[in-house]
Amino acid sequence: MSKNSEYLIERENKQYEVIIGLEVHAQVTSESKLFSQSSTKFGAEPNTQVSLVDAAFPGMLPVINEFCIEQAIKTGIGLKAKINKKSVFDRKNYFYADLPQGYQISQYKYPIIGEGKVILDMPNGQKEIGIERLHLEQDAGKSIHDIDPNNTLVDLNRSGVALMEIVSKPDLRSPDEVNVYIKKLRSIMRYLGTCDGNMQEGSLRADVNVSVRLKGETEFGTRCEIKNVNSIKFMQMAIISEANRQIDLLEEGKEIDQETRLFDTKRNETRSMRSKEDAHDYRYFPDPDLLPLEISQELIEKIKSDIPELPDEKKKRFIDKFNLSPYEATILVSDIETSNFFEEVIKNSDVKLATNWITGELFAVLNEKNLEISQSPVSAKNLSKLINLIKDGTISGKIAKTVFEQMIDGDQDPLIIVKEKGLKQESDPKAIEELINKVIENNSDKVAEYKSGKDKLFGFFVGQAMKESKGKGNPQLINKILKEKLNG
Amino acid sequence: MSDITNQSLFELTSNIKEKRLSSEEITKAFINRAEKSKKLNVYITDNFEKAIDQSKKFDSNPNLDFKLPGIPIAVKDLFCTNGVRTTAGSKILNNFVPSYESTVTQNLWDQGAILLGKLNCDEFAMGSSNETSFFGNVQNPVGENLVPGGSSGGSSAAVAANLTPVTIGTDTGGSIRQPASFTGTVGLKPTYGSCSRYGIVAFASSLDQAGPMTKNVRDCSMLLEVISSFDQKDSTSIDYKRNNYSKELSKDIKGKKIGIPKEYRVDNMPEEIEQLWKNGISYAKDCGAEIIDISLPHTNYALPTYYIVAPAEASSNLARYDGVKYGFRSPGQNLIEMYEKTRSEGFGDEVKRRIMIGTYVLSSGYYDAYYLKAQKVRQLIKKDFDDAFSKVDAILTPSTPSSAFKIGEKTNDPVSMYLNDIFTVPINLAGLPGISIPAGKDKNNYPLGLQVIGKPFDEQNILNISYALEDKINFKNDISDWWLSE
Fold first, then answer.
1. Catalytic residue among B67, B76, B215, B441
2. What is the fold, at CATH topology level, of the domain defined by A429-487?
């Protein structure tokens, strides 16, 4: 990365670097939970998706949902990570009202996925972020403190839902990188169909580890972990606030305590949750109800053969095959729905125009209306029709914008709009010549000026001719014939 | 025909199949005897009314193809039974009624058996004398104020006292075999993974196994055949072809190699036990078996290993009893106070002791020294057996280092209580099948048992050896019915 893009926090003459590592909790896309057959559907009535296993009734035993294992392997492959053929489920023991077993089944020493990497496309080039590990674990239930004034209520619908904890190396250096990293992770998982990445529904949350050091230092500073931040914006705010807090302490000559902190979104500050001394002793040990998880090479190969083209590969193909700029390709592959839409449009239409129209007009509309591309008011089919109308000269780019505005209203067919409104471009040379003759006749004074050397007036004639054609005249033809008439 | 309740399972099923007895007659006979046997305190919860209804229903349309046709059976109160209170001998589950059935008990009902009731046991199966039960101690029918062993003490007493034809217990470190030995009955702990743990209140998951407790070896084979099954609901259940144990039962053990481990000659072992073992060896020889001296060098470490692994797992398994979801709750001002009060009042001393030991050995800083080391030793113990079984077909040892002791004799001395399991614990650690059969009596006329240990999944072999020895030993339990009331 070039120096001028470094994210540094300044204090008097000193510059501090911020070191960030993320533990992302991604909910595995799966119909049923990690160790039971209960549904994982979001938004159900409290405690309606709870099996005897999820509620930890006496004598109930966990049975691994193999689909979740395959999803984790798939994600591992997407992160170009090592798939561990043997991994172990451990019990993480602690008491809480929404943890029915009194322990969470997780993976401690032997995770299912080992080291991998994620490539970030930053404005000034690519950056590789290391993945330390990915492990599977159960989600807990939900404690609700604000319904009953005297009691805490517990909803176990989420209890036992499969999560992937994806731990990055401390390779992130700025809130921007965190933004791109989360989006990239989310994009990869959405391509793979292993996590829907829906942050509103809590499908993607992160614990953020932050430390600071003077620029040039090689040792890491003491880190603090900010627990359970559930949006990119809050992660960025928390990082900035926490880094500044740590720097302030250092500037005052104080030490930073290694601790777990919470981010208060209203006050935009982190506050201490528990110190290292108060840290839970989770008494991890291998869950004796589950045998070590063994994964065969056959299964890995089978999953590999089902892996779709991922963003990095797709981007390369878009650049190589369609001659897109890296910038355009990055935008188009960032979300699988966008890239699918793009590929659908270019099946039957010009790539360059499609790129411009999707990243230009369409994105503007989506932004304005706050829609996902999957909810696009204009279908890929009709957008490609519009592009073909431009390409074959039926309508001009300018008219196309008018047509597009109308298409938004109920995904109308551009062919019908053009026909009904008579927007078809006038491309008959005779008709054009006629209207140009008229313009020359009506502006003989200007013609004289032009001929005496006032070249700039050419634009004026084009404008008049366009006006005469009610905007439908083929601009290339108008130009060509005007030139012949005026210069001839 | 002898008294109904004296009959073995084999006799009762024959009598039902030959229509000499009805299920209702049999069920009522056992209930009638139970009504007069309250002094033994074997039942925590009876199911008598429903059992009679079910026996009538069976008789109205008897399916004689069943392996347990209309046979009433009481089970240890560690098996969850649908609609019938299941306490695990604990106050904390005093009011718990499951809405589901354990796989092992379901297997009984699927073969025509009828639930008589739930039998007393040590709290969460933690104990060797049935004295840790919240529902009081159980009397051994062998003699007044004698413990029936534990933790399946209600089960052993019920079989010995003819209150159930057979029963099922669970065995984590000897909880089937030791009480069988103390009551002159037969008890088998199958290979780990043979019987499903689904629906059994967990004590130590890597050691727990359900198994049959019966009057004789043939009944034991009949019951094992019914309860052993592969179950997808238990990830540690093993899918292998189970024998027709009763059909393949044979006294022909000629040429079988039986190992005698020298390490089981422990210090201060009573002369009577030594003699019992010698007798067993000579009977085995009489049957044509070959006796081979073997060594199980890590035997001494089995008990300490067990008392790390089992409490560690238990401390975690029992975390779910927190007053939040079901069972006993003692209200508090906040969550922590509720936990503390619920668990302080809901658990007994022995359970608390083991939770504390387990929590300690898993704590950071102690994990490697205790739990991890214990797991390594456990592998060595297992390897001892693997090595031994390359030379022999089965191993013969005493079941316990002593006969039944007096109620209260060891309650203040946990370590001496734990020593009861010295011969049975290694078998659980190694995941092997083991059976205890009555083999003699001590000077007080209290029964003593011998244990036959087999290779994994080789239950048929140890049943056959026991069947042959049983015939030679010809043990008679003289129980005087001293407790009966009118």
1. B76
2. Arc Repressor Mutant, subunit A (1.10.10)
